[in-house]
Amino acid sequence: MVTLIALGIHLATVGRDINFRLIAIGDLIAGMTAIIVCLAIQLRQEEIHYQTAMDRAAIVAELNHHVRNAIFPLCLAVQNTGNEDAIKTSNDAVERINIALKDATADAMSGRVDYQTYRTNGSSG
After folding, report:
1. For 22-37, what is each residue's pLDDT tens digit?
2. 46 and 21 in contact (C-beta within 8 Å)?
């Protein structure tokens, strides 16, 4: 596109009086340079997107790990009591936590929630 626009402008302004072949080569080089710059910008944006996704995945994995480590002893204690109502309540709570963690993972991966902000500001939401 850059090459075509430059060629058109040169044709309109300079005409074919001067050695137009050299001007066309210069315009072609300008077009190739524009392509290289655009590809470099796109590559940088994809790199930033990939790094952001990896950061989000690490934060969610850390959250998942800590939550499960905190709940596991409670579940064991409840199961050791043998109280069926307590076990049912415990299992329901664990299932709700699993659903919440799945939702948090989906939010983090889609970018709907920026957990990095929560982590750096120290707030919990």
Report:
1. 788 888 888 899 999 9
2. no
Distances in Å between the alpha carbon of 83 and those of 79, 87, 89, 93, 96? Answer: 7, 6, 10, 15, 20
Letter string b/e over residues 37-57, b meaning 16 or more CB atoms within 10 A of that residue's CB: eeeeeeeeeeeeeeeeeeebe
pLDDT at 25: 83
Domain map of the chain by residue range?
Answer: 2-121
pLDDT at residue 90 greater than cutoff 50 = yes
pTM above 0.85, yes or no: no
How far is 123 from 125, CA to CA, in rounded Å? Answer: 6
Could you tell me if 34 and 7 are in contact, meaning their C-beta atoms sit under 8 angstroms apart? no
